[in-house]
Specification:
homodimer; 2 domains; 8 strands
């Protein structure tokens, strides 16, 4: 185990841990004494009909979702809804490589799939909160992959679904890109097969990852217009790479990021239907807003459109933001106001 | 010096070497006993008015340009034109890190800029062939960067210019991407600061580069539609990465690729005008067809459009090909027929 303060309460704020006991994973191993981190806002009404589940993306935790997406000014308003923000397994806060004891610590942390997360979240929602139907499941990127998994796996439980900047099945393009990201970490001799003493030993790999993520995570327009000035307050391209991208990844745990990458790369709701994506997406009952980001190079709008066309009660709601995929972090106010507008419409639908 | 057969005549076909003597480079060093590789097709007419110069891209040599772009079926028809295809300096065939003797061998090969190439090419064209005006300068990607440099540096000599899939100044986005590419090679311990015994010692780095180039070199549509089947005859994403991308880069010389990357990353015609791009592009007299590729993620169409708007006699000719930047290699017949159509129109203009 590594005591990385980035994943502690001083950095992440308050959260609860739900005890899952031994969680048998899709790939066969059992995650012992598994814990799911969550934080909740607002009050569950008597009918238990106002619950919203918010999922997390790659490298993100519940904190960014709570900070950017939840609040009285947002569609996810705790005055109206009971909002549960849940950290994915392997994210550093829930059970993860760096916080698990032997024999599942570090490089021996088992392989986890999106389906494992969603089954764990289902137990939190049903067993702990006694909720039988969610008014909305919403998340971006890997969080959106979890939204799709919820809507296909538990169709009766999901009244509304909002996958933001995500597809129901990983694309070949992105699978290759994730290989590049994983290689960036594993090629650092300091990674040492996953048995480093501190994440700082893998700083070169983390910096390499930061630069790679920068090339697809932000759009060419972001760079062309030097939006790091207006949006992020950085003075140059180098200042942006060092002060934003490297600063973002450096405090993180490399095995955590690799665990999430493995999961990200295999997200695919058609695992429920022998590889048949149209049949999998036909299972979705939820009123669904498919919400791509206009300049996204991870999950390009045309790929999200293709999913949308296969879902019965789905509408495409394109979010215009020249940042690209990283716009998800809500750096630019125009982004979150579009998301809020669509989510309000969906919740009133 | 390394005897790498990839850059020899068995692989590259016949070419000539023009002796430049000592070439004083923009960054101050002198490239001793410099050689410029070229091959020519067709006959120079008596007025010397039918000469076309064809430049090369990153990792490419004169052979691919001759094979794909030149021929009786193409606009670059040797029955009508005198066509000179020239290899850029540092490309492996012209004077380059792996074929230069000490003290400029390998890691000590000097830094070369696009402007150095164009000055060397100018000497070949004027001193060797006695040509005072080129009917057309055409090239793709880094070849297009050379086209822009020609049109700005020697405006009176360039009657027509056709930069394909290129911009006049490197974008921030691409500069970061090239950093990622260079790091892929240099992070391989086998690279050893540039002092490997054989390119094979850097195979991991070359393979890493191959996968990175795959993520931006081919478009998301290429991957979504699994066009490696129809266009390249490969059976899967892995088959494509191994059998096309890695197979392409593995025989190459790492220092050659790094030399070209350094040059690629710094291409900027506004060096002539103190950083003022509009003023630099105003110098262009040539009738110019700016020819972006529709799905290009290296040089996106909107960036090429921005250049086009700054050139007096320029027209935008978008080439539609879902391959993205790598479409330049002419894998798909639809690509080269569009290029030919535009170049014929330009040559008749």
């Amino acid at each position: 185990m590594i005591d990385n303060p980035y994943y502690g309460r001083e950095t992440q704020g308050e959260f609860e841990l739900y005890d899952l006991g031994n969680l048998v994973l899709e790939d066969g191993e059992t995650l012992r004494d598994a814990k799911l981190a969550y934080r909740n806002f607002g009050r569950l009404n008597a009918e238990k009909s106002n619950a919203i589940l918010v999922t997390t993306w790659f490298s993100g935790t519940g904190k960014v979702m709570a900070d950017v997406y939840v609040g009285r000014d947002h569609a996810l308003n705790p005055d109206e809804y009971f909002i549960v923000v849940v950290d994915q397994i392997g994210s550093g806060v829930s059970s993860s490589p760096q916080n698990s004891p032997a024999p599942q610590a570090m490089a021996k942390f088992p392989k986890v799939r999106i389906g494992d997360d969603v089954r764990a979240q289902h137990r939190l929602i049903t067993e702990h909160f006694g909720i039988e139907r969610l008014a909305l499941v919403v998340g971006g990127s890997m969080g959106g992959q979890q939204v799709y998994e919820w809507a296909v796996r538990y169709p009766q439980m999901v009244a509304r679904a909002a996958p933001i900047a995500a597809t129901a099945r990983i694309s070949h393009h992105q699978a290759i890109f994730v290989d590049v990201c994983a290689d960036a970490l594993m090629s650092d001799p300091g990674w040492n097969g996953g048995w480093y003493r501190s994440g700082n030993d893998v700083r070169d790999g983390l910096d390499r990852l930061a630069r790679i993520v920068a090339t697809l995570g932000w759009s060419p327009q972001f760079y062309q217009e030097e939006r790091w000035r207006s949006v992020l307050g950085m003075s140059s391209s180098d200042d942006f790479i060092n002060g934003v991208m490297k600063a973002y990844f450096e405090p993180m745990d490399p095995n955590v990021l690799l665990c999430e990458m493995w999961k990200w790369q295999r997200a695919d709701v058609s695992r429920h239907t022998g590889g048949d994506l149209p049949t999998a997406l036909k299972r979705i009952i939820a009123k669904t807003y498919v919400m791509p980001i206009s300049h996204d190079m991870f999950f390009p709008p045309h790929e999200c459109e293709a999913d949308c066309a296969l879902i019965e009660r789905a509408e495409l709601k394109l979010i215009h933001t020249p940042e690209g995929h990283m716009g998800l972090n809500g750096f630019e106010p125009g982004y979150i106001s579009q998301v809020d507008e669509h989510l309000r419409a969906l919740l009133n639908n």
